[in-house]
Amino acid sequence: METIYSSVVFKKNNTSEARDAEPPKAAAANEEVVYSTLAFSSPAGPSPSNLPGPVDPADPSDGARTKVMTKARSKDRLLFVSLCALLFAVALIIGVLYISRKILHEEFARSLTEVWVNMTHLERENRDLLNNNNNLTSQLSEMNRSIEQLQAEKENLTSELQTLMAKANHCAEGWKFYSGKCYYFSTYKKTWTASRDACVAEGADLVIITSTEEQDFLKSQCLGIEHYWIGLTDAVKEGVWRWLDGTKLNEPPWYWTGNEPDNWKGYLNGYPEGEDCAVMQLGSNTYQLQDAFCDVASKICKYVCEAKPGM
Ligand SMILES: [Ca+2]
Ligand SMILES: [Ca+2]
């Protein structure tokens, strides 16, 4: 608590200034008037004993005290109003912050939910892609295995094809190749039956002539005129000439010479079975047929064998 004391001294007969420290005896001599004021102030506010009492307008000290109190109340009101405004502002800010935070929280939660849903979809798509990738990898492996097998088969087939092509154009020594066939012209003579046996022993048979081109090839191989047994006979049925493969002799053109085939039975009918095998008279410009004995030692001729290449 702070105590304020002040005194003012007025002298009626002396105009000189009063002095606060003068002794009481001077007042008696000069008839002095003293006005004193005592005031109390406290930082925590007036105590009940210091509260102003009823104001007396005639009392100058009450007026001053009234002014002081009025000023203090104004300050209190101002402070109170300021505090209220401050509290209102703080509450308003807190409210705004709370609403903003709530809105942000809801938006964040909504965004988080969307992110979670999208992440779930992406995980599902990722699983599907992984499954597809595994399937494609498996299919690719199978295709690679199939390609390897096909390549191996291709190499084998190529090798076989080369072997077959080599064999296709290959004829044994002493044989001649023409149009996919091998031909052998004998240099010695045998009966028709022995000649056929010799051809079969080589994996061939007596020649079967199926075209004029083949006939021309045979003619071109002879410098002079020669007789050769061929694979043509009527032994199965007299007068019906068939090649060894069973096909019937095409006529015309009529290649039989003179009155052949006459199925001659020899002198004094020594060979009653007659002539059942065909022999060709072959030269560069000659191709004629006649029938003769198939297995008579006195009737021997050269022969032509025919075979497939690679025999
Ligand atoms: Ca005959
Ligand atoms: Ca004859």
Can you walk through the features of this model?
The chain is rod-shaped. The strands form two sheets. Strands 3, 4, 5, 6, 7, 8, 9 and 10 form an eight-stranded mixed sheet that branches. The chain folds into three domains: 1-51, no CATH class; 57-168; 176-307, Roll (Mannose-Binding Protein A, Chain A), CATH 3.10.100. The chain is an alpha+beta fold and 311 residues long. Mean pLDDT is 84; it is low at 14-29 and 43-53. 13% of the residues are buried. It starts with a strand and ends with a strand. It contains four helices and ten strands; from the N terminus they run E-H-E-H-E-E-H-E-H-E-E-E-E-E. One calcium ion (CA) binds at residues 260-262, 264, 275, 290-292.
Structural class assignment: alpha+beta
Uncertain spans? 14-29, 43-53
Order of SSEs: EHEHEEHEHEEEEE
**In angstroms, what separates the terminal alpha carbons?**
146 Å
Indicate the CATH topology of the largest domain: Mannose-Binding Protein A, Chain A
User: What small ligands are held by the chains?
Assistant: calcium ion
Organism: Electrophorus voltai
Region (Disordered): 40-66
Pfam families: Lectin_C
Transmembrane segments: 78-99
